Amino acid sequence: MNKELLLTELTFKATRSSGPGGQHANKTSSRVELSWGMYESAAVSGVELELLKEKLSHRLTREGVLLLASQTSRSQHKNKEDVIKRLFALLEVAVQRPKVRIKKRPSKMAKLKRLNTKKVQSEKKANRRKPSY
Fold it and tell me: How many CB atoms lie within 10 A of CB 44?
């Protein structure tokens, strides 16, 4: 994944933040919305694109656009940095391939140990019963 190329493909939009804040919040646009068209992107390879489709399908619009927003700070620049960091973190997690589980059989000693403990347990229970004549 080419991060420099990806940064050029991102689209930012500044909007008003929600919540309290008085006059300052009502007249400044500090919330930053990031949008990225995943299907038109040249920054990701075909294999990475398939992984991203699978992992981020619930976050994409119908057109394949990923939307993220940040309004944690009162500064538009800090919110922009924050939303970019979140995007890269999200993409790094989504691109990682899951480890393939290797099926393994229990060893012979493990089987014998399990059977032996079952035998001991059944003998313990059998000794508690009343003797039958």
Answer: 20
Q: With 0-12 CB in 10 A as exposed, 13-18 as middle and 19+ as buried, what is 58?
A: exposed
The residue ranges of DSSP E strands in 27-92, in sequence order, are 31-37, 65-70
Residue 43: how many CA atoms within 13 Å on its side-chain side? 18
Check: CB of residue 35 under 8 Å from CB of residue 53: no
Is the entire prediction scored with pTM above 0.85?
Answer: no
Residue 66 in contact with residue 60, Cβ under 8 Å?
Answer: yes
pLDDT on residue 126: 92
Q: Which fold has domain 1-133?
A: Double Stranded RNA Binding Domain (3.30.160)
